[in-house]
Amino acid sequence: MSLFTQYPEIRIPGARVAITGGAQGIGRATAELFAARGAKVAIGDLDGKLAERVAADIGARARAFTLDVASRDSFRAFISDVEAELGPIDVLVNNAGIMPLGSFLEEPDKATAAQINVNFLGPINGMRAVLPGMIGRGHGHVVNVASLAGKMPTPAAAVYSGTKHAVVGLSASVRDEVAEYGVSVSTILPSLVRTELGAGLAMPRAVSVDPADIATAILDTVRTRRAETVIPRWLGAAVNTANLLPARLLEAGRKLAGAGNLGLEANKSADRADYLRRIATQVGDA
After folding, report:
1. How far apart are CA 213 and CA 4, in angstroms?
2. How far is it, in rounded angstroms, from Cα 76 to Cα 82?
3. Residues labelled catalytic
4. In angstroms, rounded to a whole number, what is the distance separating the alpha carbons of residues 261 and 75?
C-alpha cells in the first residue's frame, strides 16, 4: 500500500466547478479560466445581478447564483441549485472574502463579525455543504483561498489575518480527514493581489500578483492536489525562513519596512473608500 494518497483524476473539460465570490477579482478570473478550459462554471456571489452579468460575459459554460457564504442555509441551497442545473460538483473554490483595514482596537464590532462570517465561516459552510456528496461519489476537490496573511503578522488587518490563519489550519485538518475518501483540500495563499480588496495598498511589483496568477494556481491544484501554494511561489520559502528568526529581529524588520502603517495609509485613498462603502452595504457597517 502506498504511503501517499492517490486521488482520483478530475479532468477539467466537462468538470463542474463552483466558485464563491465569483463575480469579481480572483473569483471572476478563476471562472473565466476554468470555462476557457472546458469546465462548467457556477458563479456564486452576494451580488446576484453582477454574477449574472459576468456569467453572460463568459458565455454558455457559466451560470450565476446568488449566494451568502455566511449563511449555511444559503450555501446548502447554492450547492443544491448548482447540482440540479449542472450536475454533481467536482471542484468547489471557496474564494469569497473581505478585508477592512485599520486599528484592531478601533475596528467596529460589525466589521469584526463580518470578516469572521465571510472569511472563516464561509469555507466551513461550503465544505459542510459539498463534502458529503463528494465523499459519497469517491472524488472531489476543494480549494480554499486564504492569504499569506495566514502565515505571518499583518498589522492594521489583525482580524483579517486571524481569519486567514484559521482557514489555513481548517484546510489542513479537513484535508487529512477526507483524503481516505478520494477527496482533496488545497489552500492558496496569495500575497498582495491587484484587486478591489487591496485597493489603496502600496503594492511593489516583486510581491504583488494579478488575479489571473491566482486563478492559474487554483486550476493547477486540480492536477497536483498540492496542500498549500503560496503566490508568488518564492515568498513561501522566504516567509518560512523568516519565521525561524528571533522575534525581535522580525519585529525590527517590519518596523523598518513600515508594515504597521500600510493599512492606515490605504484607508486614506479614494479607491479604498469606494471598496469600504460597497462591503458596508453588503455585510453591515464594515
Report:
1. 28
2. 10
3. 160
4. 36
